[in-house]
Amino acid sequence: MTHPFKLNAPDDVINKIYSRVKEYPWHEMPDDDGWSYGTNLDYMKEFCDYWINKFNWREQERKINKFNHFKSFVEDINIHFIHEKGSGPSPIPLLISHGWPGSIVEFLEIIDPLAHPEKHDGNIEDAFDVIIPSLPGFGFSDRPSRPIGPRKMAKYFDLLMTNSLGYKSYLAQGGDWGGAISSWLGFEHQACQAIHINILTMRHPEGPKGKEEEEWAKNFEIEQEMENGYRTQQSTKPQTLSYSMMDSPVGVAAWIIEKFNSWSDTVDDDIESIHSKDSLLTNIMIYLITKTFNTASWIYYGRREEGGRILSPEGKRVEVPTAAALFPAELLSWPPRSY
């Protein structure tokens, strides 16, 4: 069962969020050292001042609602998704999956160029049917009853594409957890004809172990040492973290902003050289309005229960055509091509 959906957050929910931001006890916060301890205090003060005095959620809501939104009951939960049908005679179905701490907001600027390239100096023959779901437990999709990982989410999304929407084949793109979901789609689901990812979240059991690979593995461990705290918490005790975040919009914002700063190719830690306050806040507000910070973090726990990064103990690989975008500040640096 698929039905149309529109974002329309209740006024009392919005007002409560703003009230909590206004009441935050900044005078109790210790001095920091820029971004080196975590989210920069001066930036958070500036950010929250903008939040309560200039940010307009309703304006952002209208921008999001320009696209066609739906919910579809898939197996046992409702999946929310944007479905923008492409121009031209035969647009290619393209499933785009976000990650954590992201949302559908990440893709708003690329929907129209992908679906209607002729309006952006492109060729109408290159159009896609663009399908962008909220991951289960994220945003406007239902919360699963317990943690699930990217493999299970891939199954939901394949059913969405084939059963709910009736596509016989499709392409999958994803970043962060969306890359893991896309990898599972390409690995296990025949309707997925090709994938595009920007982060290597999955692997086979034994990669090459030459000098180049060993050097990469050594540097990878060093890189992860200072970035692994959030992942350890969310993959082992996500419930504990959720108690504080449920009642602290500033806490949720700080937790998310630090990741957007660390994982973006910023200039001198200037997060707004990449992300505007409005785009950051729109993404954060989706977590707050839907109260899904907790269940969104479950994906880390769910992936651990699914077996971690290994696709197959038998060493099987993704065999469908695969493309990758290698950006300079990704959390997980890419291994050598031989890997």
TrEMBL record:
Domain Epoxide hydrolase N-terminal: 3-107
Keywords of this entry: Aromatic hydrocarbons catabolism, Hydrolase
Organism: marine metagenome
Family: Belongs to the peptidase S33 family.
Residues spanning the membrane: none
Xref: Gene3D superfamilies: alpha/beta hydrolase
Keyword Hydrolase: yes
Record bears the keyword Hydrolase: yes
Molecular-function annotations in GO: epoxide hydrolase activity
InterPro entries cross-referenced by the UniProt entry: AB_hydrolase_fold, Epox_hydrolase-like, Epoxide_hydro_N, Epoxide_hydrolase
Full protein name: Epoxide hydrolase N-terminal domain-containing protein
Gene Ontology biological process terms in this record: epoxide metabolic process
SUPFAM superfamilies reported in the protein's UniProt record: alpha/beta-Hydrolases (SSF53474)
